[in-house]
Amino acid sequence: MKDYLRTNRELWDERATAHATSPDYGLGRFVADPSHLSDVVRFDRPRLGDITGLRGVHLQCHIGTDTISLARLGARMSGLDFSSASVDVARQLAADTGHAVDYVIGTVDDAVHLLDRESFDLVYTGIGALCWLPDIDRWAAVVRALLAPNGRLFVREGHPLMEAMDEGRDDLLVVRYPYFSADPLVMQVDGSYVRTEVPLLLRTEITFAHALGEVVTALLDQGLRITGLIEHRSVPWNALPGHMLQLPNGEWALREGTERLPLTYTLQAVRRSDCERAVPYGQPASRPSL
Predict the structure, then answer these.
(1) Residue 43: left (phi > 0), alpha (psi -120 to 50), or beta?
(2) Residue 242 per-residue DSSP state
(3) Cα angle value 51/54/57 (rounded, 5°)
(4) CA nearest 41: which of 28, 58, 22, 16?
(5) Residue 88: CB partners within 8 Å, gap ≥ 6?
(6) Rounded to whole angstroms, what are the CA distances from 283 to 199, 221, 225, 226?
(7) Are 29 and 51 in contact (CB under 8 A)?
């Protein structure tokens, strides 16, 4: 299992350089326009509400465009990512835009040692993050460990049913990959999910399936209260080529029959002030097998 971490870290170190110059991430727009927000944060702004003055941390922050966007909405942000190259880009973006974001290098498991426990009003996880984690129960335990009493988790993520679809079929929507947690999925990929002219040599990525119910249950096991769960009919990238069209807000939706398939979801959960951690950090949740 340790190989997955090294393989994926090398992949994201290489992607960081390519993404820094990609027009889809558009780092120059953040520098030129102090009000510019990432498409992902702009999409969920009505659900985020007023975050002015909140202490927030963005787990798996990559090159920091969502992190900077949350800072622009008034939060005092930290960011964590296991890719040192990604954090380098994120730190430079923060310097170029004049935002005092505290970035640290580490895995999600490292967060409980690198960041202050039980001190964050907002723990944020952006799109395309959870599939890189092998253990969703450990992620939920980290979230619980970081949240202050009454603190809130905010997740916008690719829907696991969309992630299970065969992106290589442009004639039919076909389920190809696991929906429920299973063995690691080792894939050979070409290029990246955004436009870039930087050649990418590394092709192996190792991901993990996490069903929506598994994510929700992992949070409930930690004593968090689910306060919102919305399934969306759009996704921030062309996830199923041949089936999708781009919307005016930058999102992508199915060209026809949008009611057939959820593409992303937004989940919110709160740590109650009287919440005791149901499953100690580092120990797996005990559930019956189905």
Answers:
(1) alpha
(2) T
(3) 100
(4) 58
(5) 16
(6) 41, 11, 20, 22
(7) no
Please name the residue that has the structure tokens 């905010």: 154
pTM score above 0.85 = yes
Token readout for 88 is 């380098």
CA distance 246 to 262: 16
Question: Which amino acid belongs to residue 80?
Answer: L
The residues pairing with 171 across neighbouring beta strands, listed in sequence order, are none
Whether residue 153 contacts residue 120, with contact meaning beta carbons closer than 8 Å, is answered with no
- What's the burial of 139, exposed, middle or buried (CB within 10 Å: 0-12/13-18/19+)? buried
SS3 175: strand
Say which residues have a Cβ less than 8 Å from residue 61's Cβ, sequence separation at least 6.
67, 79, 80, 81, 86, 87, 90, 103, 126
Domains of the chain (ranges; CATH) run 2-271 (3.40.50.150)
Two structure tokens written together for 172: 């039919």
Relative orientation angle of helices 84-97 and 2-20, to the nearest 10 degrees: 30
Cα pseudo-dihedral 94, 99, 104, 105, rounded to 10: -10
Q: What is the pLDDT along the chain (290 residues), one digit of tens a residue?
A: 558 999 999 999 999 999 999 999 999 999 999 999 999 999 999 999 999 999 999 999 999 999 999 999 999 999 999 999 999 999 999 999 999 999 999 999 999 999 999 999 999 999 999 999 999 999 999 999 999 999 999 999 999 999 999 999 999 999 999 999 999 999 999 888 888 988 899 999 999 999 999 999 999 999 999 999 999 999 999 999 999 999 999 999 999 999 999 999 999 999 987 655 555 555 555 453 33
